[in-house]
Design goal:
It is a single chain. With 72 residues, this protein is an alpha+beta fold. It has one domain. The chain contains 2 helices and 4 strands. Strand 1 and strand 2 form a beta hairpin.
């Protein structure tokens, strides 16, 4: 295998391991019902994923609930 082939394989493998995250929180709307707000999926940069999780936690705390994030 040539150096070019190795680099191409490495780039392909690293892009396949991209981490994504979706955060959401549920809040009461009355009559025992709940609504759920789901943030858009964020992939790649950890700083962006952390910023979304922080925003979700802040919004959930203001609504009196907690944020849940699913990583994929």
């Amino acid at each position: 295998m040539t150096i070019t082939g190795i680099l191409l394989a490495l780039v392909t493998l690293l892009s396949a391991c991209q981490k994504c995250e979706t955060c959401s929180y549920s809040y009461p709307v009355g009559n025992g019902k709940q609504e759920t707000y789901t943030f858009p999926e964020v992939c790649g940069d950890k700083m962006n994923r952390d910023a979304q999780e922080s925003a979700c936690r802040t919004a959930a705390a203001m609504a009196g609930t907690t944020c849940k994030c699913n990583k994929s």
